[in-house]
Design brief:
Blueprint: H1 4-25, E1 30-31, E2 33-34, H2 47-54, E3 59-67, E4 72-80, E5 83-84, E6 88-94, E7 97-105, E8 111-115, E9 120-130, E10 133-143, E11 149-155, H3 157-165, E12 168-173, E13 176-181, E14 184-190, E15 205-207, E16 210-214, E17 221-224, E18 227-228, E19 244-250, E20 256-258, E21 262-263
Parallel strand pairs: 2-15, 10-16
Antiparallel strand pairs: 1-12, 3-4, 4-5, 4-6, 6-7, 8-9, 9-10, 10-11, 12-13, 13-14, 15-18, 16-17, 17-19, 19-20, 19-21
Length: 267
């Protein structure tokens, strides 16, 4: 018959063994990094174009959005008289009232969508441009009693990045990259890049270079793509990463909320 002491020792060893097994099977989710270092400044039309715009007799515009039922139109300024705007200038018209947003960018295919239920005009504009880079701002535009438009809030890409970084994580096992929202598995991607070396040891997963918007539905969605960093090369690679999308909302106190994140459907 075993003594109480030996039985106690056996029990402790068994529990310790189970705990160790649990530790070895636990998934350690690591945090992503962000490419945007600080909030982006407000857009500003170059001074020489602004001067030309303020004294111009005519704006040459092209259509971006038209809602005949609400008598709302959004156009982009291509030229002021004979001066190209170099990708700046948005005009919002409601009824007979026109509002010029000269400092907003109109390059890189901006989008506009009016929500009649809330009276909000959503506008997405380019914030950072470059090869492999697509970063946008989301503007919430409202109208006063005269029909004049004003920007009630602008969603800064840095704030979106930081909100996502608080939620997103990853694990890597071999060539399998698993992305998580908290502890919820979002997607598992298989790395197929073979000419960039191995994954970066310090931080292989980043977000911030690809943050844009989908205004096609009833609620704006932020669309983002994580980038992979390798030991060779100075750029992030997106070959095997899917786009993710999530509805985004703005509270009365200007707090942004990013809702359920899912893999975006491919078209």
């Amino acid at each position: 018959m075993k003594s109480k002491k030996s039985l106690c020792f056996l029990f402790i060893c068994t529990v310790a063994g189970l705990l160790c097994m649990g530790c070895s099977q636990q998934t350690f989710i690591k945090s992503l990094s962000g490419t945007i270092d600080a909030p982006l400044p407000a857009d500003s039309m170059p001074p020489h174009i602004l001067q030309a715009a303020q004294s111009a007799s005519k704006f040459h515009c092209y259509d971006l959005m038209s809602d005949e039922a609400e008598a709302i139109a959004v156009t982009c300024i291509g030229e002021v008289d004979q001066t190209p705007t170099e990708g700046y200038g948005i005009v919002v018209t409601r009824g007979a009232t026109t509002t010029n947003f000269l400092h907003l960018r109109n390059s890189r295919a901006p989008q506009a969508k009016f929500d009649a239920a809330t009276g909000i005009l959503w506008l997405s504009t380019s914030a950072i441009e470059g090869t492999g880079v697509c970063v946008e701002k989301l503007h919430q535009i409202r109208f006063d009693q005269t029909g004049k438009a004003y920007i009630s809030f602008t969603v800064n890409p840095y704030d979106v990045q930081q909100a996502l970084l608080r939620r997103l994580g990853y694990t890597i096992k071999g060539n399998q990259i698993a992305l998580y929202d908290g502890k919820k598995l979002l997607h598992t991607a298989t790395n197929t890049v073979t000419d960039m070396g191995s994954f970066d040891q310090e931080q292989p997963l980043w977000i911030g270079e690809q943050i844009c918007y989908d205004l096609s539905g009833t609620t704006p969605k932020v669309v983002f793509t994580p980038g992979v960093k390798y030991t060779t090369g100075l750029v992030l690679t997106y070959d095997d990463m899917p786009d993710f999308a999530a509805p985004i909302s703005i509270a009365e106190d200007s707090t942004i909320t990013i809702h359920d994140i899912k893999v975006a459907p491919t078209h």
